[in-house]
Amino acid sequence: MLFFVGLLALLVACIWRAHRWARIVYAALCVLGLISDVRGLVDFLGVPGSYFPLYLLGVSIDTAILVLLFVPATNSWFLAMRAARLAR
Fold first, then answer.
1. Model's pTM, two decimal places?
2. 10 Å Cβ neighbour count for 15?
3. How far is residue 30 CA from its own chain's centroid?
4. Per-residue pLDDT tens listing for the chain (88 residues)
5. CA geometry: angle 18, 24, 29, nearest 5 deg
6. Which residues contact 45 (CB under 8 A, 6 or more apart)?
7. What does residue 19 show for φ and ψ, rounded to 5 degrees?
8. Which residues are CB-contacts of 66 (< 8 A; sequence separation ≥ 6)?
9. 3-state helix, strand, coil in the chain (%, to 5)
């Protein structure tokens, strides 16, 4: 578990530094997580209490992150940061 937290922290740091490969790897991990979430949906439908809304919240946050990584404003930010890094 600690390994995956470290891996995600590394990917987020690389995305912050505008490395495009990190965005693609993070998106692939999000897609794999969403596939797992959809497959696990049946398990959470039978769980009583407030777990299902929290489950849906987690799925919606993953989906929002995935969309926000590839909107045109994000693409232009990655290009601008890359141009600034190459200009140094």
1. 0.81
2. 19
3. 5
4. 899 899 999 999 999 999 999 999 999 999 998 888 888 777 777 767 667 788 888 889 989 999 999 999 999 999 999 899 888 8
5. 125
6. 52
7. -85, 120
8. 27, 30, 31, 34
9. 85, 0, 15
